[in-house]
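Example 3.
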Amino acid sequence: MPGDCHYLEGNVNALRRVEYTQKLLTQIGVDGRRLRMIHLSSAMGHQFAEEATKITEEVRALGPNPLRRTPAPPEATAEAPAPPLEEQTS
Amino acid sequence: MIVAEQKPLDEIKGLLADAGKVLVVGCGTCVTVCFAGGDKEAGILASSLRMATRIDGSPKDVTHITVQRQCEWEYIDPLADSIQEADIVLSIGCGIGVQALAERFPDKIVVPGLNTTFLGLPQEQGVWEERCAACGSCILGLTGGICPIARCAKQLLNGPCGGSQDGVCEIGHETPCAWQLIYDRLKAQNRLHLILEIQPPKDWSTSRDGGPRRITREDLRLAAEAAD
């Protein structure tokens, strides 16, 4: 439950970051509604099933992830061969 | 620190135009601390651009790299090979970093991914406030360590103005009146006599009015460079 986290208010902080990520995904073109966070305890199996079903239906209504329609270019790489920060002089 | 924030993704995509290979360059100093242009943000932006350009139907090859300081030649020179391979460089350093890369690698197009905003500090996590306007003539010794140039909307030297109400500036409720802060601080320090001194009009020639500024320390220059 909000504020009742092993890390105290950590799940409230996490929710803010999920909301930020939703905005980021919407800017990218992947609808931010595909990502969400709900507060549940380990004893709330029934609510978990309900939420999972609800999310599945809502995401299905949004249609396929647009990234699936456009495959990545074969030469695309994730990261440049960057020297790690700690190896640089300071 | 220099505080900046990322430009909207659509604006960044517009700056990249038709370039196929994009190198995002982060900076490990000020913009890392304000969560705008560090290694983490460079990675997220590169990933966002890869996804967004795929969805747009014109996928770009976007990679990222971060240097400790984009504003010094010693740190950006090792980027030469990575930059050579890119069609365009997207700097998420401050405006100084962008210009340093553009100056060091003049054959490459370098574009900014951030809006450099102000010199300030994190008031609390996630909140940054302006503190210094780099006016070139510091008067903090007279104002209790509170800058009326950076923190008073009118940059008054003999404030406050009539727009100060209950300690708040008329421009908005989240902005404290700098001169109220100065008064309170000086009163608490029993130094209110300082506020009674009338300050003459400020000489803005040390600030932007004097054009781009330059500091030369002959004692620090290397003989070979000084001779150029």
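The longest helix of chain A spans residues 10-28. The radius of gyration of chain A is 19 Å.
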